[in-house]
Amino acid sequence: MWPQGAIFVALPQLGPILVWLFARHRMPGWCEGQRKPAWCPPHKVFLLVWTSMYSVVGYASYLVWKDLGGGFGRPLVLPLGLYAVQLTISWTVLVLFFAIHNTGLALLHLLLLYGLVVSTALIWHPINKLAALLLLPYLAWLTVTASIAYHLWRDSLCPEP
Fold it and tell me: Using an 8 Å Cβ cutoff, are 107 and 146 in contact?
């Protein structure tokens, strides 16, 4: 697995690291003024879970890359191209949540991301079943995140009197 696998696991961490570097002063107040659901984790737990998910999904992308022969050949375009798009959207969600604090736009991106991850899993399944299965915890986390975003967005539209 070394060094290519390590690169695939580390690359997705770039998004959360950049968000933390440029928006860490705004993170503690990521939903101040909004009625945060009681089951919503603190921002540090939120970022820790995202980071863990990125590691798992990065490893899954490595499995697909390896099973398709490595390199940068034509068979990799769709499976890893779709992964690159969903990774970019995922990083955008972090920016929308923690830097911009726009839960409505984050929710829209999360719904798009959910569809992209499902599509990625369906495309990866014939290539590497384990890689596709490794996306399931990510989908579960996206469900939790979308639920939080929905509650925060809804409550921002209907504030308490």
Answer: yes
d(CA 24, CA 11): 20
Residue 160 predicted with pLDDT over 70: no
CB atoms within 10 A of CB 100: 14
All residues at 6 or more sequence positions from 6 whose CB lies less than 8 Å from its CB, including other chains: none
Burial of 53 (0-12, 13-18, 19+ CB in 10 A): buried
Compute the distance between CA of residue 93 and CA of residue 105 in angstroms, rounded to an integer: 8
pTM of the model: 0.86
| Amino acid in position 79 | P
> How far apart (Å, rounded) are the C-alpha atoms in residues 129 and 8?
18
Span 79-100, average pLDDT: 91
The per-residue DSSP string of 85-130 comes to: HHHHHHHHHHIIIIII--HHHHHHHHHHHHHHHHHHHHHHTTT-HH
Name the region of 148 (left: φ>0; alpha: ψ -120 to 50; beta: rest): alpha
Q: What is the mean pLDDT of residues 105-124?
A: 96
Residue 116 CA to residue 102 CA, distance in Å, equals 21
